[in-house]
UniProtKB/TrEMBL annotation, chains A, B:
Official protein name in the record: Putative transcriptional activator
Ranges in a coiled coil: none
Keywords: DNA-binding, Nitrogen fixation, Transcription, Transcription regulation
Gene: fnrN
Gene Ontology MF: a single term: DNA binding
Length: 245, 245
DNA sequence: GGGCTTTTTTGATCTCGATCAAGGCAGCCG
DNA sequence: CGGCTGCCTTGATCGAGATCAAAAAAGCCC
């Protein structure tokens, strides 16, 4: 499924760039250094969109004609083999950028795992503005570099860590990314089902469940209603994940 | 160990940018769109360097002050846990770019696996030129996007493929990347030892060896002198790697 | 609440790849 | 040539996580 292209008429024009800025609040916003006329283009071509859980945002192998910034919610990026085996290759939280301008042939599918609010742009707009505004290009590049670094960290997890370490690593990752401003959350709701966690960790749901139980029994975490995780001591969780701090 | 900083006096000035261009020949070279004065800066600040196998180019956690383009040879990027478990998170062939300008905190170590010729620049130079030349910034960004795509492909391999598929996948990867101009090589020398292959695939050397034997006995590959691989039918190798073409 | 589905947990067993242990083979140097 | 060293291969056994199976808990709709 493609990202919708129509600008959302219900939003006032002034709201949209604020959303974009919010998306990249950590660094002052993607639109931060654009000229007034460039900002006006963004306003005209940008659409807000709300996506329900389990709805595909970008399909595997689509010619991707749009990009988006996540305003709220969690998006999973996954790859699938012909026989159905699946691997989640990235989790994106607000205010991450979705899509690969400047590169066409990267097949992966993006799917909302919670309710997601997006700020959608045409790919061509981003590419044009990036060519005009070096700082925008640089900032998108830095975001890509961070994703590359995260992907490589996860390769270490997938290739060399035990099931228990992987689960602890996942919990640590969610704790640190769920609130993008503050440090690691002490208490949070898991955005993913056990099946999705398994697909992210290269494990089965049974193994994920058993390792969560194990961490719970060892007192590393507390679990309420299967979804809510409480971490009394983040250091202890990191040790269980073999994260050297 | 840091990359050497001294420009190599033995190289004529005219040779160096040619080397850079050669590094990025597929797209016309990193230096392709620079002005004459920018090119002169590159000439002044660039050093050629030859690196022996198993020599570290950039250490894990170094404050990385240099970047490099690979002119010849193969470089492995790896991450290690405190207890010694290791994962190779990327293999770079000529004419790949090494280093992460614009981003400081990504800990990984780069090590030559064959004799490697590099073209070394100060990080600051690249960052300055990229700010001035939007096309250079864009091209570096595209290279990073490709690496991200490759890393995510590898996550699928690490998370969901069997030992045999992983080994076949690795052979296919080397076949396609060892000669950057042509298509997949039908015959090539493995640049990595069994131990390095194991670290790349998240397996042990024994399992790697057994799966190579198995692929050999099934006629998917022929092996000469343990290092030389002959692939009679690349399609068959891809099928064994579960690569959907 | 009661019946239904879906998700998660727990238990029993199996299997692929790890581990432990030799043995083979090539390169190197005397 | 023979002994040595460092990879690589092969064999035997073990174990972490997969698979198969079922029970328990939560959500959902009436």
């Amino acid at each position: 499924m493609q990202i919708m292209t129509q600008p959302n008429q219900k939003n006032s024009h002034s709201e949209i760039p604020i959303a974009c800025v919010a998306c990249h609040a950590r660094e002052g916003g993607v639109c931060g250094t654009l000229s007034p006329s460039q900002l006006a283009q963004v306003v005209r071509k940008t659409a807000r969109r709300r996506v329900q859980p389990q709805i595909e945002i970008i399909g595997q192998g689509d010619g991707i004609e749009h990009c988006a910034a996540i305003v709220r919610g969690v998006v999973k990026l996954s790859k699938m083999l012909a026989d159905g085996r699946q691997q989640i290759v990235g989790l994106q939280f607000a205010p991450d950028f979705l899509g690969t301008p400047f590169l066409r042939e990267c097949s992966l599918s993006a799917e909302a795992v919670t309710n997601v609010d997006l700020c959608v742009f045409p790919r061509a707009l981003i590419e044009r503005l990036a060519a005009e505004a070096p700082d925008l290009q640089r900032r998108l590049h830095v975001e890509t570099l961070k994703k590359l670094c995260a992907a490589r960290d996860w390769m270490l997890t997938l290739g060399r860590k035990t099931a228990k370490e992987r689960v602890a690593n996942f919990l640590y990752l969610v704790a640190t990314r769920i609130n993008f401003e503050d440090g690691p959350a002490r208490e949070f709701d898991l955005p993913l089902s056990r099946a999705d966690i398994a697909d992210y960790l290269g494990l089965t749901i049974e193994t994920v469940s058993r390792q969560i139980t194990r961490l719970r029994k060892e007192g590393v975490i507390r679990v309420e209603n299967r979804r809510r995780i409480i971490v009394p001591d983040i250091r202890r969780l990191m040790k269980n994940a073999s994260i050297d701090s």
